[in-house]
Design a protein that fits this description.
With 795 residues, the protein is an alpha+beta fold. 22% of the residues lie in helices and 33% in strands. The strands form nine sheets. Strands 9, 10, 12, 13, 16, 19, 21, 22 and 23 form a nine-stranded mixed beta sheet that branches. The chain has an eight-stranded antiparallel beta sheet with strand order 1-2-3-4-5-6-7-8. Strand 32 and strand 33 form a beta hairpin.
Amino acid sequence: MREGSIDRPSLHISLDDGTIAFTQDVLGRITGAFFEGDGEILLIPPNKVERKSMSLFTGMAILEERFSTAYIRFNDSTAAELQPSLREPDDAPDFIAHWKETAQNLAEIDAMRLLASFCDMLPADNDSTLKPAAAPRDDDRLLHVRLQGNTLGVFDVLFDSEAQEQIEAGQPKTAENGTLYYDVWTSFSVEKARSKGPQEQVPQSLPENSESFEDPIFPRAYVIDAQVKPPKELDAEVKLDLDVLHDGSRFLIFELSRFLKLQTVEADGHAVEFIQNPAGEGTRLARSGNDMVAVILPQPVRKGQKLTLRFVYGGEVLAEAGKGLLYVGARGTWYPNRGLAMCDFDLTFHYPPGWTLLATGKSATPSLPHNAAQSADGDQVSRWISERPIPVAGFDLGKYVRVAVRAGDVSVETYATAGVEKDFPNSPAPSIDTIPVPSRRKMPEPQPVAPLAPSPARNATVVAELAAQAVRYYAERFGPFPYSKLALTQMPGRESQGWPGLVFLSSYAFLSPEERRQIHSNPALQLSDQQVPAHEAAHQWWGDLVIWQTYRDQWFSEGLANYSSLMMLQQNNPQGFRQLLEKYRQDLLEKDKAGNLPKDAGPVTLGSRLLSSRFPEGYEAISYGRGTWLFHMLRTMLQDASPNNPNSGNSEEPFVRSLRKLREHYQGKSVTTRQILDVFAEDLPPSLRYEGKSSLDWFFDGWINGTSIPKLSLQSVKFIAKADSVIASGVIRQQDAEENLVTSVPIYAVASGKPPMLIGRVFADGAETPFHIAVPAGTHKLLLDPNETILRNPK
């Protein structure tokens, strides 16, 4: 072929000269092709964030690359559009023989998505005739190309009209640590998402490519009956009630652990077809241990329809880390899940005597030992019912010692074993939540003499009291604890994970101060470990009660939960508060082994995309570190504008009032970053209104959607005495910053014999910002942000 082309919004592919072979038609439709020759792709990201992300991985702000081969899949008339460019080939049999196996191997990548498009071509239950003329909807368009670039190697470009972000480009790549990642170079929208009413909320965080499908249904209630057989097996039957929000397809997508195998799926009592498809290597879905499950209904769903699905499955999804210590967390989701959506859960578990099982929800048998009854076959049975709609459900099983304390009306319980996991002595320190801990350089430490073996059960009371203090602290400020109890159970490994009313707490979080010192010589790392229970307790508000809307908003859950725990720390240990803030800053500014600065991984709004081969620790450094600093900056800005309210984290502080309002507005709902800032901007004082606007758009554009950690300095400061006042003038220099960065900078005056006094804030806009500000009589010096409330480079 010669001079062929494929065009989509923001995307142009030229097939200049070469050979192309098309796939065999499926029910009269051609869905793919393989090209070898000379071609070029041009993809132009629409904004600075995406251009910078593209440049990070490719060295170019736009994707302009020559390629030699292209594997192409589509669901529309692309084959017909290329027809005028076709010429009779000279070596058709040899070309097909050479590339056939490659094309067949790549076909699996798009099989599920194409099946979704052509699903309505399949026979309905009452129709045995295929419909060859059928085609996807006019507004359902898919184009996926995998290219062999001349300089970039193998990479993918996807256009999917059904996706929330229709364009994506990226590449599978192995990091220096040997882990395979899928680096997303860019992802963005090129058309408005379909309009949905306030109740037509589409669940987020679906599997890779599954969020490509417009979701016509919303999960309403789960009823799960599970047989747990330690040390590994789980068999379950799940009934899922769904509400159909608008007309849609017959094709529904779920996530399920790859270690669980579906046996049957029924819809309203009738068996239906299903496919359990392994996740692509290196993708988020594969890293989380999940497969993609497709359910094919007898008929397309219709708006207002009530649908009940029944799943039966089983497998070895549990992992045994030590005697009496089991967990599910690292092996994928244990029930068919469509992403974050507020649902009711009714969970029943059957398990052997001698074990304690904890689950999300409230126990329906609270008066019995271990919240369980005994069945006729001798197994224990416990039932857990959610007290309000929750986004996810989990359970944990172990041979625990139980400790309970009170936090007002809330019971706070810890469940820990006498020992730790088998590989505990060789494990590094824990990370908060489920992101791998960054590698850290360890200084030589003196070895203790005959140290006592760690025992989480020995420290269970201390952990319970720490969590209870956090619950009381947060409840006074953010509103009541959302559930009647909080259970914290020991989880093996370096990670902790929060569920509504239930926290899987790393064994490391149960260490005593002395045991922490044996692991870390760095006091900030010891303190960070100590903060884990308070951090996870904060997720009960931020992440479980108020959830994020898309991956670009997930940062707020981690950043705000972390900062909430630091606010609590500040009350009793101001020095420790500063230590941790400084640690997060240094984590962003300290080069990794490859010479990269973690701060350059991207803005917090890239969410899971921050986890890449270039920055294996990028998610933690940005979402936790920068995210924490962003909330600290918001808090101190609001406080400086309201000096009569002490900066002590009490319920009258402006920042805390806004958080309480955020909880009231969005409890039980998802929230975007913009909506969070709108809450803070509702009572924005005049001194924080950039260009006179009651908006925090400047903070979003420069700080939340940016990566700068600027250097700030005062230059050319002069004092001019007036008749009844003194005016200070000068220039604020802002270096190593993006051009549009706007920073609210606090200025302090120094007069003889008096402590520095806050005299106001100046918006630093660009590289140099001149200012004039009134100062008290006797002022001889100005200080710029002496309390270090801005995320800036101190060097």
